């Protein structure tokens, strides 16, 4: 427990510092914050809404926690992001605790730092999305279940199973089912799957089923069609890319996904890979004492491989594997030596050189990388929007990154020459180098959020629009999810059916919220003043078909028009 507390104290400043310094990123954070703000007013977790429209795409845990935080500390960017950061803190602490339980305190410390400093995990740890809560539930569940198996404590194992049910409330029901499957496969390989009650105690199974299913059953009873949408459309049909209610997300190719997932866990994926190789060479699955490690290996590899084989892949789908990768990496450093240190030195040198080159070219190479991997930027062309990432925003980050990575490479080379304690020193240098990069990641995220936030447009709209004026948003509302948050005005939606609100648009109480283009064109000619917010290019927007649209403001990749 002490190791988890130490790592939590180390991680907290990295995760919580400066959370309120920039507005919500849109699309991305704003939608989730606005759903929670509306929940705080309605207090009905069975009827989540966005812009007053039923939202059934994700379960309620994030929104319930955010709404509670808003009630206690006030609705703000810092409060919202602190909930995500708290989930990340729990995941880091649980990873360190499990590492210490399996191999000692120093091992646990390194595993916790490895997860914290995986840039993909760190980025989402400061971002308003369900991912860190999902990962926290998975990590705590694995930690308690595996520790309960090792210590032969059924109560601990039962608690771990029940907490997997919380993962279903955080993001996806599969989070409750697949982790026990990975553990069961590891036990079966070692011939230890029986007795079942040793790792599947009845209390734990009941807790898992009840926690994972209760909200879904209640939501299905409250919203006709919810069960079909969740099980069939959002999962089964999504796998074969044949959804009836598709959103605007654009999947990565299998290779792109694996590259993004690997870079997001760098450099720790190298040491984790070394551990996997050693476990495979030794046939560790036959050794009952290695069952926890085999289970972690199966989970990490399974998440990445199954996602790569799926037709639908988003960059963050690899995040659930990161705690297991961090633990495997810590073991890799414990078993490793000079070769591992030299490989990391070479990696840091290459990455440092790449940062220096991108810095010399004004940030353009990094922008191209982000445009190829960022969810919002990928789907922009599909909906007629333009990318708003400014390469010059990343120049200071790239310069600092080049210096940090270069220094880390040099120090690792020096550590290789140390006869005693060289591997420990190399692991510490690796951890310190990537931790020093985390502020650069935070600054880059702030730059992205500031450049594409809806806040400037929303503030202008709130200042100018009268109470009797009509506000219209063109395209999926989640693309400007914080519009109502910042403006205080609720829009109607034009041409926004390819959206996470697509299913809700079929509900009887949503018809007046979703307008076809001809209805807006007719209303635009009437006496009532209408404000139109759009993030689409001139060629793709309805603006070109409207008579005498007046441009009022332009910011964050969006424009604000008025008809009179």
How would you describe this structure to a colleague?
The protein is mainly α. Among the domains are: 337-449, no CATH class; 455-562. It contains 23 helices and eight strands. The protein has helices spanning 2-16, 29-42, 61-73, 77-103, 105-116, 119-125, 131-151, 154-170, 174-189, 202-222, 226-239, 254-264, 268-281, 291-309, 322-335, 338-360, 364-373, 375-379, 395-416, 422-452, 455-464, 483-487, 517-524, and strands at residues 49-50, 53-54, 470-474, 492-494, 514-515, 530-534, 550-555, 558-562. The strands form two sheets. The chain has a six-stranded mixed beta sheet with strand order 5-4-3-6-8-7. Strands 1-2 form a two-stranded antiparallel ribbon. Strand 7 and strand 8 (558-562) form a beta hairpin. Helix 4 crosses helix 15 (322-335) and helix 7 (131-151) runs parallel beside helix 9 (174-189). The longest helix has 31 residues, at 422-452. The chain starts with a helix and ends with a strand. 52% of the residues are buried. The model has no long low-confidence stretch (mean pLDDT 92).
């Amino acid at each position: 427990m002490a190791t988890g507390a130490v790592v939590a104290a180390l991680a907290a400043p990295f995760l919580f510092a400066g959370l309120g310094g920039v507005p919500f990123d849109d699309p991305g954070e704003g939608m989730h914050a606005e759903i929670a703000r509306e929940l705080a007013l309605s207090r009905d977790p069975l009827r989540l809404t966005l812009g007053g429209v039923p939202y059934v795409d994700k379960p309620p845990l994030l929104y319930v926690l955010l709404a509670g935080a808003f009630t206690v500390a006030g609705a703000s960017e810092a409060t919202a992001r602190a909930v995500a950061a708290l989930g990340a803190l729990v995941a880091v602490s649980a990873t360190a605790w499990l590492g210490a339980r399996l191999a000692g305190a120093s091992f646990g410390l390194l595993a916790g730092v490895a997860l914290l400093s995986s840039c993909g995990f760190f980025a989402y740890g400061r971002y308003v999305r369900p991912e860190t809560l999902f990962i926290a539930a998975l990590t705590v569940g694995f930690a308690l279940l595996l520790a309960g198996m090792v210590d032969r404590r059924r109560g601990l194992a039962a608690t771990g199973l029940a907490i997997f049910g919380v993962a279903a409330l955080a993001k996806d029901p599969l989070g409750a089912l697949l982790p026990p499957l990975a553990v069961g496969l590891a036990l079966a390989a070692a011939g230890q799957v029986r007795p079942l009650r040793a790792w599947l105690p009845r209390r734990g199974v009941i807790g898992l089923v009840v926690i994972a299913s209760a909200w879904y059953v209640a939501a299905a009873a409250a919203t006709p069609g919810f069960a079909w949408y969740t099980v069939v459309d959002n999962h089964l049909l999504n796998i074969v890319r044949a959804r009836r209610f598709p959103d605007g997300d654009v999947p990565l190719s299998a290779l792109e996904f694996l590259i993004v997932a690997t870079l997001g866990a760098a450099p720790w994926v190298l040491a984790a890979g070394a551990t996997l190789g050693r476990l495979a060479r030794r046939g560790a699955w036959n050794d009952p004492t290695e069952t926890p490690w085999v289970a972690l290996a199966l989970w990490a590899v399974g998440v990445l491989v199954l996602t790569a084989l799926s037709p639908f892949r988003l960059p963050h789908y690899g995040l659930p594997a990161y705690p297991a990768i961090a633990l495997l990496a810590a073991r890799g450093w414990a078993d490793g030596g000079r070769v591992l240190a030299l490989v990391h030195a070479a990696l840091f040198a290459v990455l440092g050189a790449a940062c220096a080159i991108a810095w010399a070219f004004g940030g353009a190479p990094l922008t191209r990388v982000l445009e190829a991997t960022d969810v919002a930027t990928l789907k922009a062309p599909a909906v007629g929007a333009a990318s708003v990432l400014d390469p010059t925003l990343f120049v200071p980050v790239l310069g600092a990154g080049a210096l940090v990575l270069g220094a880390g490479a040099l120090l690792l080379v020096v550590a290789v020459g140390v006869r005693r304690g060289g591997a420990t020193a190399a692991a510490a240098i690796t951890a310190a180098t990537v931790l020093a990069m985390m502020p650069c990641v935070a600054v880059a995220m702030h730059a992205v959020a500031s450049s594409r936030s809806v806040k400037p447009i929303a503030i202008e709209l709130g200042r100018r629009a009268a109470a009797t004026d009509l506000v219209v948003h063109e395209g999926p509302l989640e693309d400007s999810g914080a519009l109502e948050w910042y403006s205080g005005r609720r829009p109607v939606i034009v041409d926004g059916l390819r959206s996470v609100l697509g299913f809700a648009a079929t509900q009887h109480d949503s018809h007046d919220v979703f307008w076809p283009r001809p209805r807006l064109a007719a209303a635009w000619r009437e006496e009532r003043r209408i404000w139109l917010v759009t993030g689409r290019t001139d060629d793709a927007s309805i603006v070109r078909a409207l008579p005498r649209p007046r441009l009022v403001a332009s910011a964050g990749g969006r424009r604000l028009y008025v008809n009179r």
